Every structure is written in structure tokens, then in C-alpha cells.
Amino acid sequence: MEQERHILVVLPHPDDETGSSGTLAMHIGQGTPVTYLCLTLGEMGRNMGVPPFANRTTLPAIRKQELEQSCAYIGIADLRLGGLHDKTIEFEDRDALIRQIADVIEEVRPSLIITFYPGYSVHPDHDACGAAVVGAVKRMAEDARPVVYCIAFANGCEEALGEPDVINDVSAYLEVKLSSLQAHRSQFHHMSGVLLLEDEKLRSRWSKERFWIYRFDESRP
Fold first, then answer.
1. What is the β-pairing status of strands 112-116 and 7-11?
2. CATH number of 7-213
3. The pLDDT of residue 203
4. Per-residue pLDDT tens digits for 126-181
5. Run of H or E including 133
6. Own/partner long-range contacts of 72-75 (Cβ < 8 Å, ≥24 apart)
7. Mean pLDDT over residues 55-62, rounded?
8. Which 8-state DSSP code applies to residue 15?
9. How far apart, in Å, do the first and last CA atoms of the chain sit?
10. pLDDT above 90 for 50
């Protein structure tokens, strides 16, 4: 894996980072610093734990603690909170959101950004977050733009986007990935460590992290 100067992760919800946790842990193991801008605290999450240990009032603080624990397992030392509200990112002032992201890009100067692929990431917050990241990078000079890795998992995304550009084998980091998932106890109470680590099909699926490189030449949607 090529070493990056700095990686910026921009995602909307606590637990979104778990899908890239193996890749991030690999880069951190190489000495690459990672900054994670999480735009919301997942205040509108439907899961409250089993048995329930949260309510709508206490959930944001609990999810913040879970996010911090997940980042600790992965090795992310620089966690930033965007201060936006869950399920409202698509309604935020687009220019203000782009500026917020652009300010972090200017500060940390990443060589790689990880976010969601606009239009192919199921949740409106995912798509709006990815679109804002793309908007921020588009405003940069072409020779100064970082590479943008996008996560996509909507039905038909491979038909529209083609095969992923990057498939990372993170099998050596499955325990990190599992710890990251289980840190989000309110959301992933059903995740069984034994099942994930011992079930061959699950291990195979969770051992591969897929990314599409965003093409600013509009060769993709």
C-alpha cells in the first residue's frame, strides 16, 4: 500500500468509519496521520441498545463516546466533530458546508480523502456529505487536489460506476474492525465477534474494503 502524506475522512455519522476501519488502521500502521471529520452525532439513530440503555435525549452523548472509542481502536488521534444534526445534511447551506470541509482540507493538506460516493450511498446524509466533499475538492486547483476514495453500496452501484478501483485486503485487521464495530454498542449490539471471526463467508466479506476513485473529469456519474 502506497504511503499517504495525510488522510482526511469525512463522513456524516458515528459508526460510518467502521466500513473503512481496516484500511485506516493499515495506513496508520505505516505512520500516516488520519483526521476524521464526523459531521453529526447520529442523534436520530433508531437503535438505543438491547436492552435499551439510551433515549433520544441521552443518545448523542453516548454515540460521541462510542465514536471516540472506535477511533481509539483504529488509531485515529485527530477526531473533529462537525456540529451538524443527523438527517439534515441535505438541507444545510451547501456553500457553508463546503467551506467547512475546505477549511479542514486547507489545514491538514491531505493526499487522500475518504467519503461516500454521492448518489450511490443509500442514506441522504451519506450522499449530501459526499457531494459536499466533492464540491470542496472541485474548487481547488487541479494540480493541488487530493485523491478522493468513495464508498458506495447502493443497489446497482457497480453497474453504474464499474468495478471498484481499490480493493484492500484487511484480513490482518479484522480484530481492529470488529473492535471498531463493537465500540458502537448502541447500534451494533447484534454483532458477534465469534461469528465474524470464525464464519468463513463473513470473514471473506469483511476482509475486503472497496473504494471508487471520484473522477472529476465526469467520466463517471
1. parallel
2. 3.40.50.10320
3. 77
4. 999 999 999 999 999 999 999 999 999 999 999 999 999 999 999 999 999 989 99
5. helix 124-138
6. 72/183, 73/21, 73/176, 73/179, 73/180, 73/183, 74/17, 74/21, 74/24, 74/25, 74/28, 74/34, 74/176, 74/180, 75/24, 75/25, 75/28, 75/29, 75/34
7. 93
8. T
9. 27
10. no
